[in-house]
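ESCALATION

Customer reports they have been waiting on this structure for their group meeting. Please prioritize. Original submission:
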Amino acid sequence: MLRILAMATALLSSGPAAALDLKTPFASIDGGSLSLSDWQGHPVLVVNTASQCGFTGQYRGLQDLYERYRDRGLIVLAVPSDDFQQELGSDAEVKEFCELQYGIDMPMTGITHVRGSGAHPFYRSVRDEAGFSPRWNFNKVLIGPEGQVAGTFGSRVEPLSEQITEQIDALLP
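Update from on-call: job pushed to the front of the queue and completed.
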């Protein structure tokens, strides 16, 4: 009991939780950059993706989710990553694959590290604030309009599942 009390005291005295890094831009797959802070006031579903994974079919669900909710303000950001060795070799190949196979028009970053010491600062901040780090491709992080982690979801949670859509509905006007 004393150990638990000491841990709680240490947590409370360590100050507020680290804020999410919404300002460090991602390289856009289309050139230029994408910053989550540009979408402040909107919920954003950030998904680490891969083109050669058993879950790659979720691209269809992500695009459908984006089409269903984008007029109400939802942003879906695909973050291609080769951290699990299942991504194509270049941004151009990923972009072509996603457009041809799934008609993707949601925002996409270039190929990005999402875990470990080389992870993009956004993913490091999610790990620090929410204790969540992608364990595989198609892990999802829902960011609320105020910039907080509103939910995290593993690969097996489909983009159009009630688990995700109920949380999105609660965040949208």
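Sent to customer with the following note: The two ends are 44 Å apart (CA to CA).
Escalation resolved.
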